[in-house]
Design goal:
The complex is a heterodimer of chains A (about 250) and B (about 260). With about 250 residues, chain A is mainly alpha-helical. Chain A has two domains: about 1-30; about 35-250, Orthogonal Bundle (MetI-like fold). Helix content of chain A is about 80%, strand content about 0%. Chain A has ten helices and no strands. Chain A has helices at about 5-30, 40-50, 55-85, 90-100, 110-115, 120-145, 150-155, 160-200, 205-215, 220-245. The two termini of chain A are about 30 Å apart. In chain A, about 40% of the residues are buried. Chain B folds into two domains: about 5-45; about 55-260, MetI-like (MetI-like fold). In chain B, about 80% of the residues lie in helices and about 0% in strands. Chain B has eleven helices and no strands. Chain B has helices spanning about 5-10, 20-45, 50-65, 65-100, 100-115, 120-130, 135-155, 160-170, 175-210, 215-225, 230-260. The longest helix of chain B is centred in the C-terminal third of the chain and has 39 residues, at about 175-210. Chain B is globular. Chain B starts with a helix and ends in a 7-residue tail after the last helix. Classes of the chains: A mainly alpha (about 250), B mainly alpha (about 260).
């Protein structure tokens, strides 16, 4: 039997998902409600919040926060990274600090932001921004480091102006690396979003999880977690697709 | 790396010192610190952390027994959690990489839990493990395990086919195929996985401590920033960053020293 046939593949995946659902349901029925809820209860709780409009409201609130922070991170990170790519002394001066901030656990800064900026929307966007901006910046700089000096020399010997140099060499060359950063930022931004909703003012999907856990409504909590898991999977696929789309520009397919 | 040579060639002779990377980096650091100090003095309330304030308290905090035990608790939980996720993740990742049925069955679960922000699971972990250090360890393992598994699986599949065929034709036992062919060729992947896991694990430990208020660097930050001791709290952030940068440098060195053929991603 051919193990690679699409039919068999599909069947295995379907069987594993079905098995997972059955295990979830059965363990949910035989453990205490405080620990774990059956899949059916989780889904009916999900239907309930979807029908009464809570889900849409909370999801929109989360979505606004996420998009605002992520967009800000890309808009700031990519151009700044490319500037560092072009101005070599600035890059040499700053790249170690960017690396340091890239590996800073930003979640540790949330208490500072809380006591400085309070509970508004702005500090939460700032949290998502901080989570997301450094991957973009770091990867753009990494891309810049790998620009072949010959490319710039050739462009300059053909008398391209600064603007043309950016348009024809810098941006096309670094963009694929920036997209690697954007993929990481998409994932990190989601962590930042949930962390901001937990530890700053409760709102959105984070608030749904918290409410569920505080009210011992395990099914409600699992419903919100399931949503975030699906969101994470979807966003990760989106990020991979973006990265792959632009990886062609590097001249090879990773 | 190539920057220094190019820079030295660039500038006129008299400016060699000005163009030296170390000089540039040191100046930039100084400028950033001054900027931070200035902005905080000018705009922010007096309790906000600033370089001069941190410099005053850092030695006292680093010598403080309570702080040291907090740092030890967090960092050892991270190390233990990483160790557990390295062992279990490698095992499961290798099995997934070599046994197709297992890979097809588990792939969706591993990938979706890999994509899940660990923070979202934290309330569930406190329900399961209670408000104690077990929950922190579980959070660290959860954060690290899937990055190791995904990378180990990829590594196990990257084993060169010729080597596997040779091992097969010499009737190597599965055990020795695993240890002599698959393990060595997937080492760089494992290191990449651990590197990713280490970053996530630190975040997980801090988040867990925010949640369950057990002694550790995260709780130290939370407590001190709530009582407006931002300078003291920031020392804990510095320790977290230093641990991360140190580990990162170590794994980079390890990859470059022992696996120079591997392109780090």
């Amino acid at each position: 039997m051919n193990l690679n046939s699409p039919w068999l593949r599909g069947a295995t995946v379907a069987a594993s998902l079905a098995l997972g659902a059955v295990i979830w349901e059965v363990t949910g029925r035989y453990t205490s409600d405080a620990f774990w809820a059956p899949l059916s209860a989780t889904l009916s709780s999900l239907r309930e919040v979807a029908v009464n409009g809570v889900l849409l409201r909370q999801a929109m609130s989360s979505f606004q926060l996420y998009i605002a922070g992520l967009a800000l991170a890309v808009v700031v990170g990519a151009p700044f990274g490319m500037l560092l790519a072009r101005v070599r002394w600035l890059r040499v001066a700053l790249e170690d600090y960017v690396l340091m901030l890239y590996s800073t656990p930003m979640v540790a800064l949330i208490p500072f932001l809380l006591s400085m900026m309070g509970f508004g929307f702005a500090p939460k966007v700032l949290v998502v921004f901080l989570f997301a901006v450094f991957p973009v910046l770091y990867n753009t700089i990494e891309g810049a480091r790998s620009i072949k000096p010959e490319l710039i020399e050739v462009a300059q010997s053909f008398r391209s102006g600064e603007w043309q140099l950016w348009r024809d060499v810098m941006i096309p060359y670094t963009l694929s690396f920036t997209m690697t950063g954007v993929r990481q930022a998409i994932a990190r931004g989601l962590v930042g979003m949930v962390a901001a909703e937990f530890f700053l003012s409760p709102s959105g999907l984070g608030q749904m999880i918290m409410m569920g856990s505080q009210n011992f409504d395990t099914a409600g909590m699992l419903a919100a977690i399931l949503l975030i898991v699906l969101l994470g999977v979807g966003l990760m696929d989106l990020g991979r697709a973006l990265e792959k789309r632009f990886a062609v520009w590097r001249g090879y397919n990773p | 790396m190539s920057g220094s040579a190019v820079l030295d060639a660039d500038g006129p002779r008299g400016y060699a010192l000005l163009n030296h990377p170390l000089f540039l980096k040191a100046t930039a650091g100084l400028v950033l610190l001054c900027l931070w100090e200035g902005v905080v003095r000018w705009l922010a309330p007096p309790y906000v952390a600033r370089p001069s304030g941190i410099a005053q308290v850092i030695l006292g905090v680093l010598g403080n027994a309570e702080f040291l035990s907090a740092a030890g608790a967090t960092l050892s939980a991270v190390a233990l959690g990483l160790f557990i996720s390295l062992i279990t993740g490698t095992l499961i990742g290798f099995l997934m990489g070599r046994i197709m049925l297992l890979e097809q069955g588990l792939r969706y679960y591993v990938n979706s839990l890999f994509a899940t922000p660990m923070v979202a699971i934290m309330p569930l972990l406190t329900l399961w493990f209670g408000y104690n250090t077990d929950a922190r360890l579980a959070a660290v393992v959860f954060a690290g395990f899937f990055s190791v598994t995904v990378n180990a699986c990829e590594g196990a599949r990257s084993a060169p086919l010729e080597c596997l065929e040779v091992a097969h034709s010499f009737r190597a036992r599965p055990w020795s195929t695993l240890f002599d062919v698959i393990f060595p060729s997937s080492l760089p992947y494992l290191i990449a996985g651990v590197r990713l896991a280490a970053g996530r694990a630190r975040v997980a430990a801090v988040v867990a401590e925010f949640f369950i208020s057990i002694p550790g660097l995260g709780y130290y930050i939370l407590y001190n920033s709530r009582t407006f001791h931002h300078n003291e709290a920031f020392v804990a952030v510095i320790v977290l960053v230093a641990a991360g940068v140190g580990f990162e440098a170590f794994t980079r060195w390890l990859t470059r020293r022992y696996f120079p053929w591997h392109r780090p991603r």
